[in-house]
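call fold(seq) -> tokens
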Amino acid sequence: MTLPKPAASLVERLALAPHQSDVAIILRHAEREEIPAGTFGEEVPLNTRGVTTAEKLGSVLARRGPVSISSSPVWRCVQTAGAILRGGSQTKGTTLDWRLGAPGPFVVNAEASGELFLQVGILDIVRRQLTGTAPPPGMRDTAEGIELLLGLIANDLGQLGRLGIHVTHDSILAVLVAWLYGVPIEATIWPDYLDGLLLWQSEERLNLSWRGLPQATYPIGC
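ret:
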């Protein structure tokens, strides 16, 4: 089976990181069933193709070595993590973390933010997070949310050759990519299924690799 373009790009870009470097992959979940209109679809599962492609990605990533996985508690993310582990014949389990979703790093009042999401849509919310002077209702300041997310993902990156996968959602990943690159959301590729941002550390900077954008760096602690 051929990997879909986003996952194939992720695997190709993984070669940019020195083999001894720990690499974090912040990954959107695999392909899911349709979300019913007017809902968040938290219980919507992966479809058959999503399960199969996540297993294939897991088998390819395992060639680099053992992986560890954390995931949003939302079911489609948990399924993605399980399929990746299964495809790579990995024996470790999945760690669930709220910073990857439900509620995620940016939400402090799910009722208030959820109502806004349904009213204006994800793209408009993301634009407000990146350009507004105040966070949208029910949401945390974007810089604070990014700090929370990087605390999960980047604080322990070293030079041991480890691979950490963090399964999340498109709205969280889109903000993270645009923020770290310092560009408007329109300058990025919106995260597709199994799209991944790669991070690894060298000296006092994080190296960034995202499909459609050149490799960049971000100062640690900013």
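Residues 48-61 form the longest helix (14 residues).
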